[in-house]
Write a structure and sequence with these properties.
This protein has 229 residues and is mostly helical. The chain has one domain: Glycerol uptake facilitator protein. Helix content is 69%, strand content 0%.
Length: 229
């Protein structure tokens, strides 16, 4: 089976990340406008839309690029030797570009400026710890399901992110590209630019810890590891 070349992979990653941000930001705007000030209802709508969008996007692009849409996922996949290290930087670049394009697309659909700095405060130890946990769990789900139940990975990832919107105080960004782009959206989904660094450091730490632990729990299957009992 011939694997897609790098150019196709990058288009898939960029387009997929753009659609992901369009879903996250667009559904956040719509939810806030329709919820009548009920923040719980707005968050529920935002979470459901994000989860549903993730399933569709992972199924759409997974066979081309792996559907990472997230720099820490790409780094984790490279560390596990499932993605060439030479692909990591291009992947991250197109993920970030796609993320900002998705924000602009969402804003355009709701007649907002393409980019406007967020004033949504998201900082403090509780939120940083939330981002560590959210990202740790996301990488764990990806590694565990891809090695145990690969056909269910898109649904497992989407289910986890939907849940993490609710069990984390940060509402589970778990993605440095998403964090950067959401700083350019002064909407329900936004984050102040000054708060970005704390989130990203927590996300990187969570991804690294999960890659180590779940890489040990779920080692790659090799012919040498298969034994007849």
């Amino acid at each position: 089976m011939n694997l897609p070349n790098l150019s196709k992979r990058l288009v898939a990653e960029g387009l997929g990340t753009a659609f992901l941000l369009a879903v996250v930001v667009g559904s956040g705007i719509m939810a806030e406008r329709l919820a009548g000030g009920n923040m719980a209802l707005a968050l529920l709508a935002n979470a459901i839309a994000t989860g549903a969008g993730l399933v569709a996007l992972i199924l759409m692009f997974g066979g081309i690029s792996g559907a990472h849409f997230n720099p820490v996922v790409s780094l984790s996949e490279a560390w596990q030797k499932k993605l060439p290290w030479s692909y990591v930087t291009p992947y991250i670049v197109v993920q970030v570009i796609g993320a900002f394009a998705g924000v602009a697309a969402a804003h355009g659909m709701f007649e907002d400026p393409a980019f406007f700095a967020s004033e949504h405060v998201r900082t403090g130890a509780a939120q940083w710890w939330s981002e560590f946990i959210a990202t740790f769990g996301l990488i764990g789900v990806i590694i565990g399901c891809s090695r145990n139940r690969p056909d269910l990975t898109p649904f497992a990832v989407a289910a986890y992110i939907t849940a993490a919107y609710w069990f984390t105080s940060s509402t589970s960004f778990a993605n440095p590209a998403v964090t950067l782009a959401r700083a350019a959206s002064n909407t329900f989904a936004g984050i102040r630019p000054i708060d970005i660094s704390g989130f990203m450091l927590a996300q990187i730490a969570g991804a690294a810890a999960a890659s180590l632990l779940f890489g040990w729990l779920y080692p790659p299957i090799t012919h040498d590891s298969i034994q007849i009992q």
